[in-house]
């Protein structure tokens, strides 16, 4: 047990601040729709087909000013969002009026905070590091359970250490950790699976990674240039006729030269705000290439679609957002206090006792 304790403490001392950063940014992002203080954020989202068709046609009309992606208003956030190259973007009200515009993600705290939380502002390499931190976090929870069991009779619940001494911090860490262990496992587990999808084979079965990829992979299509003029309204009408109960969530222009325009929709029973019901249209003609209904996806793909809503508290209303906020704040508290107590509050070595005089 001693080597487990030593591994737990040393690893926490080395990456505690990274875990604290991930936890605190996650706690902020859970409430991002509440602290985006812009006009019309409280407007009810419109999903009637005529309005959606007119919106897409208006936004995509000018080939020189088309965004890479149009994301529609949703419950709790009544603005449409445009995303351009290089992190530029804009918020529009649902009548088409400009509410805010930015030239890089640094102008919008909700954007760079998300990038910091998911990628550490370092792209794919940062995302991998976040995934590794999640795996280490799972290890922390499991080893912490083993270490707590030895001292379970002295359990005392405290939200804050009794005093800022190293023994008091360690006791607070141990006892609060056992209470928060289920929430921390939920946060670490969902986040890690979102980053390292091959790990879904361990949780959901050997066929899970392939099923998840197939559920969202675009159909094969020859590369095609994006036409200057397309009947965007017709694409919306086709999508709503195909899935009349689903919300239209986003329109995305072709990426990596695949020649496909992507429309994402959200079925009523889906938790994921962006939806996993997808239609692909040819970029040069606007004709429908393929459509995929999330309700017909394999079980592993449907379960995987629940991970992000659980991780980001997109379900359960305010009560669940507060629960996940508590998880993020606890991780932030543990990470900072662990590093502080490990590196700066280590006990001073006791002086050796003075030798006794020889009385012979």
UniProtKB/TrEMBL annotation:
Pfam families noted in UniProt: PepSY_TM
Membrane-spanning ranges: 12-30, 129-149, 176-196, 318-343
Alphabetically ordered keywords of this record: Membrane, Transmembrane, Transmembrane helix
PANTHER family, alphabetized: BLL7967 PROTEIN, IRON-REGULATED INNER MEMBRANE PROTEIN-RELATED
Protein name as catalogued: PepSY domain-containing protein
